[in-house]
Amino acid sequence: MSSLGQTFRELRKSKGLTLKEVADDQISVAVISKFENGASMLGLDRFLHLLNQINATTSEFFYWQTDRYAVKPSVVFGHSGHGAPGIKLLEPFYEIIELVNQAESKTARAKAVEQYQQRIQKATHEHPTQMNRQILAYANSSVDLLHYNLDQASHDILPVVHYLESVDQWGEFELFLLIFSLTFVDTDDLTRLFKRAMRRADWYQWLAEERYLRYNLCFDAFSVLVGKQHYDEARLVLEQMDTLVHSKSDSDMQFAVQALFMHGWLDIVTGAKEKGKQQCENALSVYRILNVSGDEDLLRPIYDHILKYDPSDKKHMMIMLTLD
Known about the structure:
It is a single chain. With 324 residues, the protein is mainly α. It has three domains: 4-54, Orthogonal Bundle (434 Repressor (Amino-terminal Domain)); 82-210; 212-324. The chain contains 18 helices and no strands. Helix 8 packs antiparallel against helix 9. The protein is globular and about 70 Å long. The relative contact order is 0.08.
């Protein structure tokens, strides 16, 4: 088994980060170098701070440190209590998402996100860190979406796309960053990054809190592609979902029902409306029978908007892109 320092160096390099980029006023290049080379150890606070600096979580760090290639499918690692990587890492993205989806008028939402955008522009100018550039790209694209400018959004999210393309070994942070950014990403980039994310998410199925990450990737990518009316690409994603659902090693009724709903959704928007309605309503009925209220609450508003589907209505398409 590698030392903590060796594992940290592997993770840092996999994300394309230099010692200088990781160091800050709390921990110097010299201290990090000694830690990586086994010449010194770090206190818990400094160690956790370093993990934040490379966008890594404690669960994936220690999973990475174990003999991860010898893990048996029956083993599930990690019960750290978080359903997404380090809340501190994702906090800015969650804040923007909440502003975009808050229950106010579109004008009020746009104003709130634009104010956030101005603050992060200033922060990025003063501290042009990789993370600040990604947050700014996400804020810019969110403003574009609220103004129904999807082409500009796909351009403004490019710093996130380029970051994801530059990282050799994606961690939980990169996977969730893609999920958060799917709405904005150009379809060609989305399809390419989705394939890479699915391969990487396979590695995370043995982490307890992320074992269903692949299903979430499929549902979110499918939702965006249907919202953008790229039905052939959406159908390919749905095939991936079906493969997961029918896998004997990782099947779950909740996602089998979700896949049924997705088939109905695709049928409705591609012309087989009555067949699609039946499938969607069957899925919602199963959720009620199983008393899975959270999933029904998620899918019900989507279904209501699917029934109003109008491919010529640009605003309707934007609503669909922000629902999930």
